[in-house]
Amino acid sequence: MTRGCVADAASSADLRLPRETETWPEFDLACRVEEHDDGVECTVYPADADEETLVTTWLTAADDAFVDVETVR
User: Fold this and answer.
1) Per-domain residue ranges for the chain?
2) Whole-prediction pTM
């Protein structure tokens, strides 16, 4: 089963806190959740990525990397 989603996110390229006159860059991210026999993976990538960019610009998390939001609160 595959599901998709789109979210806005700030770049982690510059980890400084912004000054009042600075703003974090904004861009759209897409994600793909895939369920396999051995677990779930979620891959996040730039929503406007072309084929060449998709080869190098993505982040994948396995099911043991996810936590329930109520557990974290």
Assistant:
1) 2-11+25-72
2) 0.56
| CA distances for 36 relative to 1, 21, 42, 58, angstroms | 8, 46, 11, 19
Residue 63 CA from chain centroid, whole number: 14
What are the structure tokens assigned to 21, written together? 């006159």
Q: What confidence category does residue 14 fall into, taking pLDDT thresholds of 50, 70 and 90? A: low
User: Mean of the pLDDT values across residues 35-41?
Assistant: 90
Buried b / exposed e over 8-43, threshold 16 CB at 10 Å, is eeeeeeeeeeeeeeeeeeeeebbbebeeeeeeeebe
